[in-house]
Every structure is written in C-alpha cells, then in structure tokens.
Amino acid sequence: xxxxxxxxxxxxxxxxxxxxxxxxxxxxxxxxxxxxxxxxxxxxxxxxxxxxxxxxxxxxxxxxxxxxxxxxxxxxxxxxxxxxxxxxxxxxxxxxxxxxxxxxxxxxxxxxxxxxxxxxxxxxxxxxxxxxxxxxxxxxxxxxxxxxxxxxxxxxxxxxxxxxxxxxxxxxxxxxxxxxxxxxxxxxxxxxxxxxxxxxxxxxxxxxxxxxxxxxxxxxxxxxxxxxxxxxxxxxxxxxxxxxxxxxxxxxxxxxxxxxxxxxxxxxxxxxxxxxxxxxxxxxxxxxxxxxxxxxxxxxxxxxxxxxxxxxxx
Length: 314
Hints:
36% of the residues lie in helices and 18% in strands.
C-alpha cells in the first residue's frame, strides 16, 4: 500500500515511525491514547498513519489538492488507514501560511473572553504537531498567491470548486510559520516534531529556528554523506501565545537573522553546486537525464494504451 500511494517525498514505513518514538511525542506514557496529532504538510499521510497506530486522533492539511485526493480507487490516503482498521483521518486542504485565517477560534472561547474580545486565534487544540516540511530538495513549497500584481477575481459561481493559484513559499518562511502555528495551537506541554536539512556548517545552537513560546528538547542528526544530513527536532510548548506579540515573535525566530535563515534556503541549488565539483558529475547527470526521459515516455505509452483500451471497450 505504501508503494502505491507514495509520492516523491513519502517516508518509508520504518522511517516514519522514528518521528513517533519516545520521548518525542507526548501520547506514549504521559497522555495515553486519544490525543490529537496534526500534520500541516500531510502529503500522502505516512506520518499521520504512524501517529494513528500509536492511538492518536489525527488531523492533516496540505495545499496540494491533487495529493489529498490521491489517484482514486485504492490509491488514496484513507486506504492505508482502512488496511490497519484505523479511523479515517480528518484531512483539510489549506495553506499553512494562512492558518489563522483558515482555522478561527471556537464559539465557547469567544464567550469566555466576552463580547468585547477581538481575538481570532484558535484555541490550543493539538497535543503534538508532527511533520516533514517541504524544503525544496525533492518538492518545493508553495503558498496561495499569484505571480500577477492584479490577478483576476474569482467569479461567485466558480468559488465552490476553485483551486487557488500558488507561488513559491520560501523555506525560511515555511519554518517561521510552522513554529508560529505550533505556538498558537499546541496545548501547554505539547510537542512540535519536524525535520530540517543541514550541511556541515549548520550549528543547531544558533541556526535552528526558535520561538519564545517553545523550548528545544532534542535535535537528532542523521548524516546522508560527508556534507548533507537532516535533523529530527523536538520542541515543547512552555508559554501561552500572545497575539499582540506576533511581530515580536517573528523577529526572534532566527537567532542570527538572515544568516541563520540562509542555512535552510536554496538547498537544492547548494546540493547541485557541490555535486558539480565532484569528478564524473556530467556523465552521471547525462545518465539520469536519459532515465528520466525513458520513464516519462513509458508513462505516456501506458496512458495511450489505457485510453485506446477504454475506447475499444466503449
């Protein structure tokens, strides 16, 4: 099932369980079953599946509606959950950079604060946020927006099934928004677990993004080679989020400012540049290009054959 549903960034079953091992998540011995886990970059749902297997009620969102819908038939997010006799996850198409606009506060919170309250922050809900953000190596991050300065308005009759245009979502902004959402929506003591790639010059003490409402618990490094690796980072919520301080929070996300943010930016370009410096790069690149072309042609041939078969049957 994993192979049929796997996308370009889908984690293998053994890998996704690493994110949910003790002591990273709070629902092991501390909370027990029935807690809520959220993945804001859910993709094909492999991380949520591992969370559900540990007893969590899982919620996921993603901006790419094509991934959420799957390929139809047996190739959807929900089929894996059915295979393990797990409840279906709650899946929503949304943009994590606009979380506060998509998910607003509950009515009972508004009543508790009184009619004079103007807060739009959602009430803390999640016991854990576990995710593998898009950082631009295999798949680039996107957010809602247009490349045009004055995009055409969407007609009212088209709004029910309209898919918004998207634009590039810088990795530094992806990480900043992720920490902001975690600080907003985690319960006190809740965990944020995420992956961030890093080169040798990456210093976790100064280059990892921080938030005043979160404290760093663990940073586990996995090397891919002599230069590139990734870190599984675990943070814990220790203070309530203050909407009035949102701009102040944003200023302190990166300890060294732009220098720290740059460590997570343009990773694909950096990897390619380093690869070009190694002997034999051009030959290997040519072989990979031929394989991609052959694979693309085989896919086209499969589609043509399937279409022809459908026509003949009709």
